[in-house]
């Protein structure tokens, strides 16, 4: 699973609990996109989460 290159956000793990309280393992995947961004004047293709994209932490190429 990919991680965000800016904030390090990745998959989260936990336990899903149904209405009858049966428990099973669950994985929540973060919304990570492959984006071309400018890094020190050069263009790189990195994985960035959508919250970092919306907040303006990265500059798209």
UniProtKB/TrEMBL annotation:
One GO MF term attached to the UniProt entry: structural constituent of ribosome
Keyword Magnesium: no
Gene Ontology terms describing biological process: translation
Keyword annotations: Ribonucleoprotein, Ribosomal protein
Pfam families on file: Ribosomal_L28
Superkingdom: Bacteria
GO CC terms, sorted: ribonucleoprotein complex; ribosome
Family label: Belongs to the bacterial ribosomal protein bL28 family.
HAMAP family: Ribosomal_bL28 (MF_00373)
Protein name: Large ribosomal subunit protein bL28
The organism of origin for this protein: Anaeromicropila populeti
